Amino acid sequence: MTTDLATVTIHTPVTVAIDLLVRHGVHHLPVLTPEGRLAGILSQSDFLKLSFPGSGLNTVSDIMTAHVAKLEPSDTVRTAANLFTLNKFHALPVLEEDKLVGIVTTLDLIRLIDQEPIRLEDYV
């Protein structure tokens, strides 16, 4: 689980969210309400909604995915893997008593499965 998270709020402008994705080198941003509760998740694929001219999509709440599966810190890796298999998303917010404490991604699972140090040069 990744715990040092970049997040946005439902009111964050889309341009700011894009900058955060690029700056932090991530593919998903948890979206919070002004009160700090999880409202949804923003993934790179959500930005495809912006390709429609004149759509009026200006804030994160306009393009985010609102209904997301969630994990608790006590959930198993198997639970995360099953949720990834059953659904078509690649990130699961982790909540403890309705507070966002982390995120698990498919990349986290891959790293767990193969903890052997790898170098890109070995595969090029």
TrEMBL record:
Q: Which residues form the CBS domain?
A: 1-60, 64-120
Which keywords belong to this entry? CBS domain
Q: What is the lineage of its organism?
A: Bacteria, Pseudomonadati, Bacteroidota, Saprospiria, Saprospirales
Q: Matching InterPro entries, A to Z? A: CBS_dom, CBS_dom_sf, Diverse_CBS-Domain
- Tell me what this protein is called: CBS domain-containing protein
Biological source species? Neolewinella lacunae
What Gene3D superfamilies does this protein map onto?
CBS-domain
